[in-house]
Design brief:
Length: 234
């Protein structure tokens, strides 16, 4: 009986010691998590390039055939409206061609009467009709070129002739639309799939330091320069 009493306390002590060690190793490892509401917003990506300012539209004023200039009604720096007469060509050639057309018309009418009575062949009448058509076309071209009008509203930026000169390869006047203007830049090819027509851009000009002008992409050239690895954007 004494041996039994000695063993029981030893077993109890062992159990108690094991319980104490287990409680000391329990640590709260629950992570602290902070919740936020997800939101979407655009992030600006800024790229800077050097560009060239150009007129939005440019038109060369000149006749479709060599003609002598009668009068130039505007000067460099003048503002003109679309449809406004700017150059009057000499009408001597027009008057001469118109007289020839009238003569050919009279000849055709006379030959037509003869053909109807059997006086001439169909071939003779056709030749007269062809000559009349050619003359009418020449008169129409001269009439359209007798008064040159500006197709756009803009500023006269160049004048290459004076009154009495014969027009040739150079245009008589150059008229440019400078409001708005366009800026042409060469952009890295890596941005080719990212740029879209109508996208907003911000422009800084050297002549207006500190100012930013809003603009939009008007045109994206579809080819990439193989040597420079860039493409043009207006």
């Amino acid at each position: 009986m004494k041996k039994l009493k000695c063993i029981i306390p030893a077993l109890c002590a062992t159990v108690l010691v094991g319980c104490v060690k287990k409680e000391e190793t329990q640590v709260d490892t629950t992570p602290i998590v902070k919740l936020e509401k997800v939101s979407y917003f655009p992030v600006d990506q800024t790229y800077e390039y050097t560009g060239t300012i150009e007129a939005f539209n440019s038109n060369n004023i000149g006749p479709s055939m060599p003609l002598r200039i009668g009068e130039i009604q505007v000067e460099v720096g003048d503002f003109v409206k679309a449809g406004q007469p700017v150059v009057l060509m000499d009408k001597a050639q027009y008057i001469q061609q118109k007289a020839q057309r009238d003569n050919l018309q009279a000849t055709y009418d006379r030959l037509k009467n003869l053909y109807e009575t059997g006086g001439i062949s169909k071939q003779d009448l056709d030749q007269a009709e062809t000559a009349l058509i050619v003359s009418k076309t020449a008169v129409q071209n001269l009439e359209e070129n007798s008064t040159l009008r500006s197709p756009i509203s803009g500023i006269v930026t160049a004048r290459n002739y004076d009154r009495g000169d014969m027009s040739s390869a150079l245009p008589i006047l150059v008229i440019q639309q400078i409001s708005p203007v366009k800026v042409v830049i060469n952009v890295s090819e890596e941005l080719f799939p990212k740029l879209k027509k109508g996208m907003d851009v911000a422009l800084n000009l050297d002549i207006y330091p500190g100012e930013t002008f809003p603009g939009k992409i008007h045109l994206i050239h579809p080819t990439v320069d193989a040597r420079m690895h860039t493409f043009a954007v207006e």
